[in-house]
Amino acid sequence: xxxxxxxxxxxxxxFGAVQALSEVDLQVAPGEVVALLxxxxxxxxxxxxxxxxxxxxxxxxxxWENHPVTISKPGDAQRLGIATIYQDLAxxxxxxxxxxxxxxxxxxxxxxxxxxxxxRRAQTLLDSLSVKMPSLRVxxxxxxxxxxxxxxxxxxxxxxxxxxxxxxxxxxxxxxxTAQVLDLIERLRDQGLxxxxxxxxxxxxxxxxxxxxxxxxxRNAGDFPVQETSYEEIVxxxxxxxxxxxxxxxxxxxxxxxxxx
Amino acid sequence: xxxxxxxxxxxxxxxxxxxxRVIEALRSSGTLTQAEIARATGLSAxxxxxxxxxxxxxxxxxxxxxxxxxxxARGVTLVRPPGTVIGIDFAPTRITAALGDxxxxxxxRESIGYDVAADPExxxxxxxxxxxxxxxxxxxxxxxVTAMGVAxxxxxxxxxxxxxxxxxxxxxxxxxxxxxxxxxxGLPVVAENDANLCALEEARAGGGRGLEHxxxxxxxxxxxxxxxxxxxxxxxxxxxxxxxxxxxxxERGQVCRCGNRGCLETIAGAPYLLDMLPRHxxxxxxxxLAEMVDAAVxxxxxxxxxxxxxxxxLGRATALIANLVNPELVIIGGELAGAGExxxxxxxxSMELGTLGSALSDLKIVQGELGExxxxxxxxxxxxASVEESAR
Lengths: 261, 392
Hints:
Order of helices and strands of chain B: HEHHEEEEEHEHEHEEEHHHHEHHEH
Strand order of the largest sheet of chain A: 6-9-10-3-11-12
Oligomer: heterodimer
Radius of gyration of chain A: 19 Å
CATH superfamily of the largest domain in chain A: P-loop containing nucleotide triphosphate hydrolases
CATH architecture of the largest domain in chain A: 3-Layer(aba) Sandwich
């Protein structure tokens, strides 16, 4: 495996009385899909928000391409090259695909929008992802759930990120649409991007992920090469069935009441 | 369960009624978690837990640890007679999976677009995903599935299960798809050439019912045939029987991917046909075989001419086979078959020129009845047959 582009070690995060993350490690290499798995409230979203700079960590170190960095606000993460796509996608339904892709980074010429240039770049971008859209000028509201997810991911790629984090990209999608999103994740990996995939769907994880990092009650509960690990082993790590009962009980006491957000 | 003569209004009667509700819920929905049974029946979680324990003890249901939305859960399934099978059809740009009941009925199916030819490992991985998703959607536990049948547009070695070197999937050469799928799914898997499966299925349940000598031509990306002689599929020594796409027809024709010149496939295979289309302006012409067939049906002269010539070449090739095996029926399937008489009429005409009169007199050429599903249904049937064979 190549050198990790993003390396987190000993990340802890506390919300008042709630210890959401304690001493969590995570590595993402270029061209690798890491699935972040865990029960509800295990700390997956908190960890993603730490990386994205939404909720900076209390302690722990983050290394980017082997240099220590601080990520204290979303802009820091974006400048480094970390793109995050949340479940709500943050698309503007009334705008067309081109306008959504360039939302906030519109190209202008002589003070007016350079629609031609934006449309040309949008087409190149979607072509590089082998994404077919009926037309780039239809409002996003008319697209399917899968197409909207793909547009949201494509938009994040305009900033040339090196790591893309996807929060439940296939939740609430049909089979064919989920397949399209999985195709896109494979293509991101082929282009050498590191992908962090949060998902509850074990089939999706087994279809595209290289590694599965499991969180349980805010701690690392295992790191598995997906291809060589059985479904049952990963589920056992998520649910804690593999734990020693005594250790589990003491663990629960120290982080009792852990809840997401 | 203690078999108490239940007096209405007693505890025992109540328990029996509740049990029946649980079984009804499972019968209509397949595998359910205990929490879902509670929701479906309106009984409390504790009662469900007791009822499931009792039913499990007497062997009515099986229970398996699983997860639901990332939480630990107990999946409860009615124990049914074995016979559920899965069929998968790999086409160059599409994977289709179906769940069948062992009697040839499709219970559920899913299909996705995928560049299957690009990489065998990924293709198999995605097929596993599709299978797991299909089972999840149909609320069927993997333990209920007895076998899987796979259709591939490639020759498959009879003894090793390896894919041959010349096929629609050149990168799959030497790969063993059945072995790879079996390893990942933990199921017995059998793989077979798709044209062979189509031939068997059409002869069993389609246009060739009751006939013993049937040839099926699958015309899509490549050209393949399934040949049934005296009721048995002709496989050949290494499993490449019926690869009629590489029959040499034109010694001055194009060089084929197999290394020979002027093969039938260079005259009737989809990529070659699409290349023949005139591209004189920017207007988007047909980009797939299906679109070309639509254009021909809608009287596009270029598409009509190309399909007619393909039909004529197919006729010459089929004439050779007809002289050789004297079939009763030739069934045309695959996307190109959608052109109907536009393809069949020139095909018949050129067959008349190349076939023995006596062989032609009782030969019919028809479109397949099962359409694009023939390979998938054949894969389901193959899985069922493999279960019956291993039980013997």
